[in-house]
Specification:
Blueprint lengths: L2 H27 L1 H15 L8 E6 L1 H6 L7 H13 L4 E4 L11 H11 L5 E5 L1 E2 L13 H7 L3 E4 L11 E2 L4 H6 L3 E3 L12 E2 L2 E4 L2 E4 L1 H10 L3 E4 L3 E4 L7 E3 L1 E6 L5 E8 L13 E4 H12 L15 E6 L9 E2 L7 E2 H14 L4 E2 L2 H16 L5 H24 L2 E2 L4 H13 L9 H12 L3 H8 L8 E14 L2 H5 L4 H21 L3 E6 L2 E6 L8 H25 L7 E16 L4 E6 L1 H16 L3 E4 H7 L3 E9 L8 E9 L1
Length: 654
């Protein structure tokens, strides 16, 4: 065997393994996004419309402007009655969760509980959780009653029936559970990249199988009560003639961030009809008005025909005035969760689903095409023409498969084909560019993204030194965290701090501040350097207000999770400091130094004495007085200052 042949053989083997590696990486990190893009284009170009038999009633801003949220629950009873008894809806899904009795209007709760017992076509939602959930769960003695409310018969005929099940049901009030006629799971879960592409038609709780709200609504609409679960399909009991849902075992993330395993189906998406929705949508307040119109003997605002013989989903709209219940999907950046359920119901009514192709078939095609390129023309130009021709051929194959609702990787084979053409021309590894190496070293010396951008644009100035600049310094601290941490394990302290820091860091970045230091439970942020800002003092104050609101929500979340109640104090000062790099040529730190930095610490410490949460110095006040409402508290003596200074409590932004 001559050396030339041996070297070529080694080259082919090396190229094959590198190409195979790139194939796997692209398949896992690129193809889902590429398929999302193709899906969005195709649904809009071909004007794919959802079913007219599925409509949505949204509790939107129009509704909450008329009646302040949260609504008394008996209002929903009026909506249910209008839809079922007057409009003649075939199935009504109530997507809102009822987890606790209404402590403000207990008498209204009782009316609601008793009333829903009469709504035979109403399907109420619940959520399953795993053992990691820290909230209240349904007591075991009520599971038998819970089981009765899941009214479908799902026969398991799988050969491989191993699925990690959920462990519990989030709490349902006893009177609510006893009165509902139908219960179904409303769980939605995202892929690892936080995009929702798949739907769970059934869920597993302990050793039993329960329906989703989509499957339950389909059953009520069609009258089909019996379903069979096979290895690859969930079918109607008539040998899959009426309904045949392709399923696949996947791991995804639920709304609590936990990894869950289940049987999933790819959702076949439709062209959006409005913001957040692919289906016809009505405002909940208009449905209420229609009910009152009918009770008065008037013509209803929304006619009966809008809901007659249809599946209606009631839930919160993706709107800032109420809780945001929305997800990013391949077709919409923000799609209402109730519309995601509606989309899968439309899939079932049409018995039309997307299905993943066999992985082996795509892999074989890719290997064959890549080998054609590797063993093809010697001249690079002609080899690229060959690669382009094969890529066009493959993409045509992709479009044909998509039309048949079979999903195959859209770009990974094409990337692999071109990579094969490029790799053929290379006989050694590409030398790493010196600039890239410099960037890596620079990134190792800085933490903040904004600082990193400044460094990358001034690599030639990367050295010890700095200059004086007027900046605004924000210091935020958790009160009595030492006392709190004494009652927690080191692991729990880490969890609390990480979640706290993760809450405030994006807010600081939003206002172009940089986190200069984490000081135990304290955070020192700088506004005005190294990213120049004309209104750095105003941005710092706005940032502080947002942090306080965010921590208020986090505090409520911690209380629900039985974590420590946290309170914070914020101090802000504006003034001249030294801003720049300190350290050595081997290791630098970007920081600010000076009395004005210390003053921010001192001002924050007065929050405890004055029983306040947010204080600013007179120097910051001079910059922001036209934009905020403040109360002057007192003059205070500051260590290092010859004269007392005024401090102000910030009340709100004008």
């Amino acid at each position: 065997m001559n050396k030339n042949f041996t070297s070529k053989l080694i080259l082919v083997i090396v190229l094959f393994f590198i190409t195979a590696l790139m194939y796997v990486l692209s398949l896992n990190y690129i193809d889902d996004k590429a398929n999302d893009f193709c899906t969005k284009i195709i649904t809009n170009v071909f004007n794919k419309k959802s079913s007219d038999n599925v409509v949505i009633v949204a509790i939107d801003s129009k509704s909450t402007d008329k009646i302040k949220w949260p609504w008394q629950r008996d209002l929903f009873s009026d909506i249910f009655d209008y839809l079922e008894y007057y409009a003649g809806a075939k199935a009504i899904i109530f997507h809102n969760l009822v987890l606790y009795p209404d402590s403000y209007y207990p008498q209204k709760d009782l009316i609601f509980y008793n009333h829903i017992a009469k709504n035979k076509r109403l399907i109420n939602s619940y959520i399953l959780v795993n053992s990691a959930f820290a909230g209240d769960v349904l007591p075991g003695e009520f599971l038998k009653e819970f089981d009765k409310k899941n009214n479908l018969n799902i026969i398991d005929k799988r050969h491989n029936s191993i699925i990690i099940p959920y462990k519990a049901v989030i709490n349902l009030p006893k009177d609510y559970l006893l009165n509902v006629n139908n219960l179904a799971s409303s769980i939605l879960s995202e892929d690892k990249d936080e995009i929702l592409r798949n739907y769970m038609p059934v869920v597993f709780l302990n050793d039993k199988i329960y329906p989703s709200i989509a499957l339950s609504a389909y059953s009520m609409y069609t009258g089909i009560k019996d379903f069979v679960l096979y290895d690859d399909y969930l079918c109607s009991s008539d040998n899959c003639k009426t309904l045949k849902i392709p399923i696949k075992t996947l791991q995804t993330r639920d709304s609590l961030g936990n990894t869950i395993e289940g049987l999933y189906t790819k959702i076949d998406w439709y062209k959006p009809q409005s913001d957040y929705y692919m289906h016809k949508t009505y405002s909940a307040i208009d449905v209420l008005v229609s009910y009152y119109d009918v009770k008065r003997g008037s013509v209803p605002k929304i006619p009966f025909e809008a809901f007659k013989d249809k599946i209606v989903i009631i839930g919160l709209n993706a709107d800032k005035s109420v809780w945001e219940q929305l997800s990013e999907t391949p077709v919409m950046y923000k799609q209402a969760d109730i519309d995601v359920h509606a989309s899968f119901i439309s899939n079932m009514l049409a018995n039309s689903f997307q299905k993943n192709s066999q992985f082996d078939a795509t892999l074989i095609i890719t290997v064959i095409f890549s080998m054609f390129v590797i063993l093809g023309f010697r001249r690079f130009k002609y080899n690229m023409i060959l690669a382009t021709s094969l890529s066009v051929l493959y993409f045509s194959y992709y479009l044909v498969q998509y039309k048949l609702k079979i999903i195959i990787p859209p770009v990974t084979p094409i990337i692999t084909i071109y990579l094969s053409a490029l790799m053929k021309q290379l006989y050694s590894l590409i030398t790493i560019d010196k600039t890239v190496d410099m960037i890596k070293r620079a990134m190792g010396k800085y933490v903040s993204k904004d600082v990193m951008k400044s460094v990358l644009s001034n690599l030639d100035k990367l050295k010890v030194g700095g200059s004086r600049a007027v900046v605004t310094i924000l210091f935020v601290d958790i009160r009595n965290f030492t006392g709190i941490s004494e009652n927690l394990s080191p692991q729990d302290v880490t969890i609390v701090l990480n979640e706290y820091f993760s809450t405030i860091e994006p807010i600081i970045a939003k206002y172009h501040g940089i986190i200069n230091k984490y000081m135990g439970d304290g955070v020192l942020a700088i506004f005005g350097e190294p990213i120049k800002q004309e209104n750095h003092a105003i941005n710092a104050v706005k940032c502080a207000m947002d942090i306080m609101e965010a921590v208020k929500l986090l505090r409520s979340k911690f209380i629900m999770e039985d974590k420590p109640k946290i309170e914070i104090g914020i101090g802000i000062n504006t003034g001249e400091v030294f801003a720049g790099n300190i350290g050595t040529d081997e290791r630098l730190e970007y920081t600010v130094i000076g009395d004005n930095v210390n003053l921010a610490y001192r001002i924050e410490s007065y929050n405890r004495l004055l029983k306040t949460s947010f204080l600013i110095s007179q120097y910051t006040y001079d910059y922001v007085k036209d934009y905020v409402d403040c109360v002057k508290l007192s003059q205070v003596d500051i260590k290092g200052k010859s004269k007392p200074i005024d401090i102000y409590e910030v009340l709100n932004i004008k």
